[in-house]
Amino acid sequence: QLQLVESGGGLVQPGGSLRLSCAASGLILDYYAIGWFRQAPGKEREGVSCISSSGGSTNYADSVKGRFTIFRDNAKNTVYLQMISLKPEDTAVYYCWTYHVRDNWGQGTQVTVSS
Description:
- There is one protein chain.
- The strands form 2 sheets. Strands 2, 4, 5, 6, 9, 10 and 11 form a 7-stranded mixed beta sheet that branches.
- This protein has about 120 residues and is mostly beta strands.
- About 0% of the residues lie in helices and about 55% in strands.
- It is globular and about 40 Å long.
């Protein structure tokens, strides 16, 4: 059974950094594109970044370009989201996603940017 598990969230001050991880079980991630999404309170879930199965292609939302980096370690079956220069507006629950038979989501990890 496919399972995605996010980790690495927490409370950080503005300007700080976090690295989120998305670890997969029940699926070899090598063959799948992975996306990171986020949902802030009272807002719709939005796409943050995605990476191709090979890692050779990445995309970012305009709001995070230059601050977030998505990368993958297929040997560890894990995709990461490195976040720097965090802003209060980055506060949200962050989810990773992939499509295999259907949409698959992790449980999310909370990121709070606050002084």
